Automatic annotation (TrEMBL), chains A, B:
Boundaries of every Cytochrome b561 domain copy: 12-212
Database matches in CDD domains: Cyt_b561_ACYB-1_like (cd08766)
Keyword Cytoplasm attached: no
Species per Swiss-Prot/TrEMBL record: Vitis vinifera
Assigned keywords, A-Z: Electron transport, Heme, Iron, Membrane, Metal-binding, Transmembrane, Transmembrane helix, Transport
GO (cellular component) term, any one: membrane
Protein name: Cytochrome b561 domain-containing protein
GO molecular-function term, one example from the UniProt record: oxidoreductase activity
Sequence intervals crossing the membrane: 12-31, 51-68, 80-101, 121-140, 152-175, 195-214
Pfam family, one: Cytochrom_B561
Domain of life, per lineage: Eukaryota
Localization, UniProt: Membrane
Amino acid sequence: MFRRSTSGLTVLAHSFGILSLILLLFWLLHYRGGLNLESDISERIFNVHPFMMFFGLIFLSGEGMMAYKTIAAEKPVQKFIHMLLHLIAICMGIIGIHAVLKFHNKENIEDFYSLHSWVGIATFSIFLLQWLVGFVLFMFPKASPGTRARALPWHICGGRALLYMAISSALTGLMEKATLLGDKYHSNQARTINFLGLSILLFGIFVDFSLVFARYV
Amino acid sequence: MFRRSTSGLTVLAHSFGILSLILLLFWLLHYRGGLNLESDISERIFNVHPFMMFFGLIFLSGEGMMAYKTIAAEKPVQKFIHMLLHLIAICMGIIGIHAVLKFHNKENIEDFYSLHSWVGIATFSIFLLQWLVGFVLFMFPKASPGTRARALPWHICGGRALLYMAISSALTGLMEKATLLGDKYHSNQARTINFLGLSILLFGIFVDFSLVFARYV
């Protein structure tokens, strides 16, 4: 199903995506007690948040952006997978936001006060809008070829900006958690968080690069 | 000197750049006691850091990226301004990094342990490399037209990735400072930091958009 002739940039993107996933799971399972939305331990409820947000809105979304290049199938199939991966991302995003609000509720922490939450909620709202507009214009009911041609560069550019916004959200979230470690910031856990942040950033950069060089060069 | 026919996206980019600058100065002057590299108060030495990093590596750098579109002059003049603004950015970056190291030294804080510092130092190093390679290829001694044509998309894409990296650095830095406010996170200062972060992000997105739609649409 996957193209054999994937470029080096695409391979690098996949690699940093999978590395990020491994580092994230290692962090959450080894240092933070695991993840469980129905747990009595509120930290475990919280841990669902970073997993869902990264896996949906960064990893699946980035893979969805590359689908036209990496999935060896007809254009309509690629388009369907592109749409579907972003729809799954939205569902995971809703679960992830629910998780952090449930955690806040349990711990009596105020919602939406931090820079992380502001950037995150802006990203998620525009992501939703981008998906809806994309669906209406490119899938159903589908706009005229002229309108689609005019809208496509905005859809592509908006998608890339959203990926970088999602990465900014992730990095501010990791930064917040790491700063709250206090003295423990000089620990292996902190270094895991730092490597995770860098790996997520590199995933985004290589997704960006692999798309640009697929299209314009 | 400036083009009259700047597009709406360029105007939005300039606007969010200037808004960010105003919010940053308001934050540093009103809430953080001002900035002075030679002060006895270490906080004032620190404050030189966010100012230099934002003004150089985000604002001037973003304006430099748009120079081919906004400066009404011959191509070689635009190119010179593009190069010069990024050179000034590097100089300001060096002063900014010096400021935070001086602050750490005075306060006995370890260097380069946080995610912010890792992302920041990676960004600055690649920025320097990008400038050097750009200078050699496009200014002096200048490569052959074929090499330049092959290198240009990498230079453009790398530049955009670096802008988003610089913005990620800024946002993690702001997030770190805001988290260290502790209980004071629910204050006007915190909201100023949040608005500043969003404004910096929007500056980057509109610089990105204005360049893509200048080039490809």
